[in-house]
Amino acid sequence: MACNLENLVTEAPNIKTSNIDQKTPLEILQLMNNEDKKVALAVEKELPNIARGVEKIIESFNRGGRLIYVGAGTSGRLGILDAAECPPTFGTPQEQVIGIIAGGQEALTKAIEGAEDSFEKGMEALKEVNVSFKDVVVGITASGRTPYVIGALRYAKDIGATTVAVSCNSNAEVNSIADISITPVVGPEIIAGSTRLKAGTAQKMVLNMLSTSSMIGIGKVYKNLMVDVQPTNKKLIERAKRIIMMATGVSYEKAEKALIESNYKPKIAIIMIKTGCSYQEALVRIKKGGGFVHKAIKNC
Known about the structure:
Layout: H1 25-44, H2 47-62, E1 67-71, H3 73-90, E2 97-101, H4 119-128, E3 136-140, H5 147-158, E4 162-166, E5 180-182, H6 198-217, H7 234-248, H8 252-261, H9 266-275, H10 279-288, H11 293-298
Parallel strand pairs: 1-2, 1-3, 3-4, 4-5
Helix pairs in contact: 1-6, 2-6, 3-6, 4-5, 7-8, 7-9, 8-9, 9-10
């Protein structure tokens, strides 16, 4: 497969930074900051497509499916980062959101040469996690032409999974493969081809939106509070107490007591306080409410 990088905007030289090597540190930072300001606007243009992705992910979660990120290099690391942060933030099972990177775990901290160049390895990676028609597979590739990601998306589509492509080139090859294409075009990088910069920032913003909005859509947030946070250390235990206090208006002492009585489940503690019900009753209410606190309280 020929690379054909000359047609990719992510590989193009940026005329505004052509003499960046002659700038002072402050001037370099000003150039970077000005370019970074373009990222949010590029992502904004893709909100309808991101929303389509979120809707499919929520559907997947509700039928027992998973969100699976696949990428190489910076893109792969961003997917793994987003997946890793879902269990502590939203109380999800480890297997509900998965990140896969070309080259495996070793590629998280070092470049694995040639890992992204195989279509077959992308397919094999999805086979290893038993991808099914219930899942949503998100291929992340700044260029939109990474063979590893293309192989994974093709395989996912063949077995009936929903496929989403996140790239930063409007003519990306993955756009013709995926069911949903999310393409924030951020323009040339300040250092030509260094897609860890604007492209990476855009991809991170998109992944934040996909996972966070989907978690809100399955009841992992009450008001704007992460009520399914897992209080696994002292800081998170204190955060859980504050969440209960903010959601219910009770004192620190009452929040602490409720957290203990709820078996350290902030969501359940809030329902117990708001409705005056027992721990077991709160569990029934949250199940009947489909995981949504406001529904569990309303149906009291």
